[in-house]
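Table S2 (continued). Query chain:
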Amino acid sequence: TGGKTANPSSPFAATDCDRLGFKPQLDMRLFGGTHRGSHPRLRTILKFPSWEAGKYANTRQFSVALPRSEFLDQAHIKTVCTRVQFAAHACPPGSIYGSVTAKTPLLNEPLTGSLYLRSSNHLLPDMVAVLHGPPSLPIEVESAGRIDSVRGGVRATFEEVPDAPISEITASFPGGSKGLLINSRNICARKFRATANFTAHSGKSTELHPLLRASCKGKASKAK
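Corresponding output:
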């Protein structure tokens, strides 16, 4: 600062990171139509309920792949934010396809924001989460995810998650005429599970297979 030079003699190095725990939990639920061709609303909740300073590692990257019961309806992708628009904070409202909220023990209030579809070098547009703090905390966090297909299902991969403690992330995607997902079959005919892979900044990894819950009360036997 001010042209001054520092010559530190005692460097800092983190140790014993491999001893930190890593226990993400993922809940996924569809709301709305359950028959083939319906566009359900999706809500995902990622939790780290046992987070304590010095005991659990933070997430470095993760991917969530939906089962084959859910396809990406590209006909419902109306507007995509260009990189130029995104850099200028001028994305059109039509490029917003969901909302996101993140809670961290570092802040007294959650970060909230939107999920955008942004132009990409890949076949499908990227999904970018842009989070903001309240007026009293002018913080902005961006995290870009790549969308692709694996084993017939749509997958989102976030490869660069900031090394910060997160206790809960909730992402919601609308359904109906604005829904990006479309049922490829009757989702009440049987149970479907997603596949989620997480890697911590400590190097630990884990794979989860959460049930993709739906409003099937009284419909399972009839569908069968």
